[in-house]
Amino acid sequence: MLTIHQSRIRFASAAIGALTFFSTITAASAETVVKWLHLELNPAYVKIWRDIADKYQAGHPGVKIEMQFLENEAFKAKLPTLLQSRDAPDFFYSWGGGVLKQQQSTGALKDLAEAMNANGGAWGKTYNPAALKGMAFDGKVGAVPFKMGVVSFFYNKAYFAKAGVDAGGIKTWGDFLGAVKKLKDAGIVPIAGGGGEKWPIHFYWSYLVMRNAGQQGFNAMKNGEGDGFVAPAAIKAGEQLAALGKLEPFQPGYLSTTWPQALGVFGDGKAAMILGFETTETFQRRNAGDGKGLASDNIGRFVFPVVEGGAGAATDTLGGINAWAVTAKAPPETLDFLAYLTNAENERLMAQAGMILPVAAGAEDGVTNPLLGESAKQLKGSTWHQNFFDQELGPSVGRVVNDTSVAIVSGQMSPKDGAQTIQEAIELEKM
């Protein structure tokens, strides 16, 4: 057995010595390979990660960071099988929520609680508390957080001006429907929709549930209290989504449009709005036909509106808490590298490139892009940050939520039947 090296975590002075339980690293060969599975499509962002990995390797002889890629839908389809195989990655992209919890319950993941809590929790304290909490279940930590996100509306300023729509005046769902009607009257497609992958449409239903039910009401639904997801607030959310669908707000063929294609529709000026991630400005450019998309100064942003009489607030946010999940058999070097990858210096670097809203304490000043800054400000003032419903409720129920959202907005299912379908899926999951 060859001793490779003894490593200490140097990602922040407060964390030095925090991870002594894996400070001595041994391996059976002269090189330890850490396999990193991601689904990032932007080559500029992948290069930033590669540069960070190369810098780490230079300071840690005998360790090789091997990056592997899977496209989003292929990733979701293949990961369960991959985790049970000999080719399982050492760490991989995670949306957290019920999906992560399920992976953790099968024994596929390494529990990071001991590492995070060592020496008074020095490592864990380097992250935004909400982000770290989102990765913890039943006292275990299954992933290392690296970014947070929020879903909001992005709009084409020129089209809004042409249609006489004031984005600042869109405060309620009624205001939003009124804006959609004005855009249609002006001959402009109101919204770029990605119904082909279904999950982009679930943003609408999820936000409407949040706005109607509020945090307490949503927690009661997911915990099976009262009427669960056939509660009046959930049915009303479906009715509001159906009302949007009746206005035919999306581009022709949206039911077969992928998310990248929807971003391209917005970037090509073929729709006035899109409900998307904080990175929408960057990705509309990448997916536009000319590779340039809308100019930054022609893109505005507004939060998802409240609903009249709802228990939710405009400051309640829906979005991701993303992390790197660590598999059970990953070598100790994996944690060492992840501590390095997500330290304040590297998170600041990623934020400056516009690729993340950082979770590392002290990296917030890296956010310089104005639209990203607006998202960061919204998150900072969030009164309730909810992970995506299709992640929060677990993979099986999540698929039903996505399918049902599309079925309701397209008029294929009634709001009441949709709510009942989701409730039945939750009950089936608990059997």
TrEMBL record:
It holds the Pfam family SBP_bac_1. It is found in: Periplasm. Keywords: Periplasm, Signal. SUPFAM superfamilies: Periplasmic binding protein-like II (SSF53850). Residues 1-30 form the signal peptide. InterPro entries: Bact_solute-bd_prot1, SBP. Gene3D superfamilies: Periplasmic binding protein-like II. PANTHER family: ARABINOSE-BINDING PROTEIN-RELATED, BLR3389 PROTEIN. Belongs to the bacterial solute-binding protein 1 family. This is ABC transporter substrate-binding protein. The lineage of its organism: Bacteria, Pseudomonadati, Pseudomonadota, Alphaproteobacteria, Hyphomicrobiales.
